[in-house]
Each structure stands twice: as structure tokens, then as C-alpha cells.
Amino acid sequence: MKTLVKRHLPTRVLNSWKTMQTGLTNTREALLDAKRHRVYGGPGEGSFDSSWTGRQLETQLTKDYHRVEKGLALREPKRPFGAEVEKRLRVGLSTLAAGTAGPITYGSFAESALTALQSWNAGGAADPRVALPVVRDDVLRQANSSEARTILFDDFFTSRRSIRDFDSSLNVDIADIEAAVALATNTPSVCNRQAFRVHMYTGKQAVTSVLSQQNGNAGFRNSIPVVLVVTVDARLFSGASERNQRWIDGGLFAMTLGWALHSRDLGTCFLNWSMKNSESDALRSSAGIAAHEDIVTLIAVGIPPKSFKVARSPRRQIDEVLVRHA
Ligand SMILES: Cc1cc2nc3c(=O)[nH]c(=O)nc-3n(C[C@H](O)[C@H](O)[C@H](O)COP(=O)(O)O)c2cc1C
Fold first, then answer.
1. Pick from 269, 238, 239: which is nearest to 254 by CA?
2. pLDDT tens-digit profile of 43-78?
3. Do 175 and 259 fall within a single domain?
4. β-bridge partners, 299
5. Residue minimizing CA distance to atom 9 of ligand 1
6. Strand 293-302's sheet: what is its strand order?
7. What is the pTM of this model?
8. Total structural domains in the chain?
9. Of 292, 177, 169, 286, which Cα lies nearest the Cα of 227?
10. For a Cys-Cys bond, which of 113, 126, 236, 241 suits 72, CB 3.0-4.6 Å?
11. 169 Cα to the center of ligand 1, angstroms
12. Which residue has the least CA distance to atom 31 on ligand 1?
């Protein structure tokens, strides 16, 4: 059919036919994305009630306990605050208590936040276990040393390059990847929801199976010893306004992971997952990734040979990137 159309239609008509096809595909994919958000994400806190369970309840409790943490961490917290938050925390915690056995981390965070909120609103002090007192050096350690700032940090940021040539005789220490993932969990995320997940593939067959579904690694696939798939749990986002949040949180996490791997002297190359929904379905089912996870990016990990080449990848000028407003 396609060949028939190509052969008999003038270029102008053929081009507008192609444009129309692309438009239809874009719309179809956007509708499928929206469907995933509707199916896996929650309905938004406006409709919260005691029937919420599982990830929906976790999402709401996390949003609310974090509101308490943020509120109490202000220089001058409002008093009282969080009436709706308190109500939802109480309802959510009683649902959680009724439906579960054993400790659930976010449940205990929600519980201590509720206690801290109630105590603050009753005239008590801000609970230091919920709003932690720190000194500047705890969060800006690099400010201690101007030498460290220029040598260590500038070098660190400017030395990372995408590696497309790995030495397959050099083994990646999996403990380094695990350490990098642990470091990357320091990434900020919306209301501390930490929806990110990392799937690690190390066996030749598993690595090849994942990589063969991605279109940007063909030239160096055989040299890649480890591939990571960064995903986000779509169930941790709710309501229309959070429809794109998972990509932001997942992207931020992926980049932190890239830096953390770099800090462990591992070479990386991000591999785009700019794919249609059907291709994501195929990767999920072949690679053991749950249906509720969205695929953010792949990352090839390995150690480059002693000498190799990197793409030039020139940078934009700072004035093009930084738009100054006074
Ligand atoms: C999300 C993302 C997807 C990418 N996908 C690919 C890819 O499929 N194949 C590839 O060779 N490089 C890929 N890259 C690497 C970019 O080409 C590279 O980051 C860019 O040119 C800047 O170069 P540098 O990383 O060496 O600084 C990707 C980068 C990002 C951030």
C-alpha cells in the first residue's frame, strides 16, 4: 500500500499525507500517555477519602507528611497550619492501620509528622526529628575550600563525557554501581516521593536483549558490559497537574545517577528511550519491568580503554543559556 501511494502521488501530496500521518501518531501516543496516567496515577487529593489504599494512599500520605516537614522547617512556621493536611493524615493512617500488618516506612513518617503537627499547633516547639536543625557547613561543605571548588568540582563536571567505547576486558565492580545508586537517592523529588527505580542488567544475554530494543547504541553495543534502565513508578503521581511530573523526577534522578557513576570512575552513555508506547510495553515485558513503571532512559555503563575518542558535542555559549532578568 505504502509503495503504491509513493509511486502514484506527487511529492507535495505525499508530503502532506506524511505530515497528517505524523500528526495522527502524535495524538495517538499522547492519548496513550494520558491513559497510563489515568490508569496508574491517583485521581488527585480533592477526592481523597478512606477508600484509598496501596500506592494511592502512599502518594497522599507522603505529600502530606512532607507538607508538615516543609512547614515546620520554615524560619517562622505558621501557627496553626495544615488543618486539611491533619485531617487527611488521620484518615489515611487509620486506613493504613486497618489494612496492613507490620511497619510501613511512609506510614511511620506520616505518623511522626502528624504528631509533630498536632504538637506544634497546640503551642509546642517544632519537632527536631521532623524539621532537622543543621548548620551551613552540613549542606554547603564545598564552601570550606575555594581550592576544592575550582579543582575538584570544576574538574568533576567538565571531565564527564559520553563514552561509546568500553574495554570489555575490564570488569565493572557491581558494588560501585550499587554505591552510585545509593548516592543518587539523594536526588530531590516532588514531595519526596522518590518514584525512581533502577533495573540493572549484567549478563551478556540480558544486556544484549535490552540494548537491541534501543536505537542509539548499535555502533558500540558489543562493548557495553552493563546497562541500567531508569524508570519511575507512575502510581506515585496523581491528578491532572502532575501528568508530566514523573518525567521531571525521573530525569533529575537519572542525571544524579550519571554523576554518581562518574564519581566512581565509571564511564556512562545515556541512551534515549524516545519510544512509542508499544515499544515501551515490549521492553517492560521482555526485561521484567512492571507495567506501572515508565521508562525514563537507559544508561550504558563500563570502563573505557586507556585511550579512545569522544564526540565533540560542543556547548552553547553561556549567554545563550542564561537569560538574565533584573
Ligand atoms: C537522555 C539522553 C539520551 C541520549 N541518547 C543517546 C543515544 O541513544 N546514543 C548515544 O550515543 N548518545 C546518547 N546520548 C548522549 C548525548 O549525545 C550526549 O550526552 C551529548 O552529545 C553531550 O555529550 P557529552 O555527554 O559527551 O557531554 C543521550 C543523552 C541523553 C541525556
1. 269
2. 888 999 999 999 999 999 999 999 999 899 888 899
3. yes
4. 228, 270
5. 216
6. 196-201, 226-233, 293-302, 267-272
7. 0.86
8. 3
9. 177
10. 126
11. 24
12. 270
